[in-house]
Specification:
cytoplasm; Lsb6/PI4K2; 457 residues; alpha+beta; globular
Length: 457
């Protein structure tokens, strides 16, 4: 059993365990039938086989007699804590506490709550992404209809934002940065999601048939709305937009230890954004948590002296990573620059702490190869996955890692990093032997010279 990063356990389905696909007449759905009686052992085997399905199969799978549950579609054996959070979200939805749509933004994203009404995560369905066919926000529809020549970002793969969210969390974990809230691919169903009129009409018809003619209704393998695949990011509490705190820090200088802590967190954000080539990092989609000593819970009398001398703590959270992993550097109308490059923190050279944390990893070719393979296992789950396009995405990422490695070795600043020539490191067609990589015979380094019409660098 191989545990894929950010996903479920995948087990090959052969022989007696093979599932038979049958088209449901007139519904456009598919059902999966299991041979033999459904006992306790069969149910366990069924759950294991479900985790081996690709995303396309999961989207077409409908649990027998289910009205809205998705428990069998979400399996994270390698992460019990995350599984427990998803289970709480599903229980809240079944009890009638539905996710709440977030008003701001250009796509359909939702605050997911638990049974007590507390926000536990942010869910972004694939079909409701900025240019998805079920995006409830009219701004992007107007953009797509009236301005087709400027439609979308030509360097990104369309409708792959949910995978970019999960992949950014994977890169953060592999590099040990700790600034991206845990994010994974999840299936959820809720009446508050934006569905087509056909899906809602089919759901109402099946519920009516189940109520009036139970014998016919029991034949349906799903009664409720179809599940939606998307990214589920854990909710972080106590954070505010970076612009709020950065403006405040200009008038109220931080203590030296706290300032160094902010600089270290900021450099981790720079490393993440540069590696994944984030094209949408403004001051509104990264958060800062600033805790003063008096903001912490009251300490006992013995700890009073320690609390007085305690410095404020700062933590950064990088959210909204859906517009990352381009298959080429921006070279059309605009450049999509890193907005943090204009901050004072970007002018200071990378600290020794950041160099010790990152340099030893990204300078190891086997580490970069393992990271690419882990991302491949995650991205190939999408039904629109194209291997050639994915290899282009990895070529851009390798070029970014190459520049970052050189910048850290030369003790450059983040501002100097973004001004380096853009590099693409392409894989050769032959020369690799397993996971052992020889850079001289396997990769080809080229410079990306074409620049967009509007560029800030």
């Amino acid at each position: 059993i191989k545990v894929n990063p950010g996903g479920a356990v995948r087990v090959p389905v052969t022989g007696e365990n093979a599932l038979t696909e049958l088209d449901l007449q007139g519904s456009g759905e598919k059902e999966l039938l299991l041979a033999g009686p459904v006992g306790s052992s069969t149910k366990r085997a069924r759950r294991t086989r479900l985790s081996s399905l690709s995303m396309t199969d999961k989207e077409n799978f409908f649990t027998a007699g289910s009205i809205g549950g998705t428990g069998e579609l979400n399996s994270f054996p390698e992460d019990p804590e995350f599984s427990e959070i998803i289970q709480k979200a599903e229980q809240a939805i079944e009890s009638g506490l539905f996710p709440e749509r977030i008003s701001h933004g250009s796509s359909g994203s939702y605050f997911v709550k638990d049974s007590r009404g507390n926000i536990i995560g942010v869910f972004k369905p694939k079909s409701e992404e900025p240019y998805g066919h079920l995006n409830p926000k009219w701004t992007k529809y107007f953009h797509k209809t009236c301005c087709p020549c400027c439609f979308g970002r030509g360097c990104l793969v369309p409708n792959q934002g949910y995978l970019s969210e999960a992949a950014a969390s994977l890169v953060d974990q592999k590099l040990g940065l700790g600034i991206v809230p845990k994010t994974k691919e999840v299936f959820l169903v809720s009446e508050t999601f934006h569905y087509s009129a056909i899906d809602r009409a089919k759901s109402r018809g099946k519920k009516y048939a189940l109520e009036k003619v139970p014998q016919v209704g029991r034949r349906f393998h799903r009664v409720g709305l179809p599940p939606k695949v998307g990214s589920f990011q854990l909710f972080v509490e106590g954070y505010k937009e970076a612009d709020f705190w950065l403006r405040k820090f200009e008038t109220e200088p931080l203590p030296e230890n706290t300032r160094k802590q902010l600089q270290s967190q900021f450099e981790r954000l720079v490393v993440l954004d540069y590696v994944i080539r984030n094209t949408d990092r403004g001051s509104d989609n990264w958060l800062v948590k600033y805790e003063k000593p008096e903001d912490t819970p009251k300490a006992s009398e013995k700890d009073t002296e320690w609390a007085v001398n305690k410095d404020p703590a700062i933590k950064i959270a990088a959210i909204d990573n859906g517009l990352a992993f381009p298959f080429k550097h921006p070279d059309e109308w605009r450049a999509y620059p890193f907005h943090w490059a204009s901050l004072p923190q970007a002018k200071a050279p990378f600290s020794q702490e950041t160099r010790d944390l990152v340099l030893s990893r990204i300078s190891d070719l086997n580490f970069v190869q393992d990271l690419s393979e882990d991302l491949y296992e995650m991205f190939k789950a999408d039904k629109g996955f194209d291997k050639a396009t994915f290899e282009k995405q990895m070529s851009v990422m390798r070029g970014q890692i190459l520049n970052l490695t050189q910048a850290l070795k030369d003790a450059k600043s983040p501002l100097q990093l973004v001004q380096m020539p853009r590099v693409v490191v392409e894989r050769s067609r032959s020369g690799s032997q397993g996971r052992i990589v020889n850079l001289g015979s396997v990769f080809t380094q080229t410079f990306h010279c074409k620049r967009p019409f509007f560029s800030s660098w």
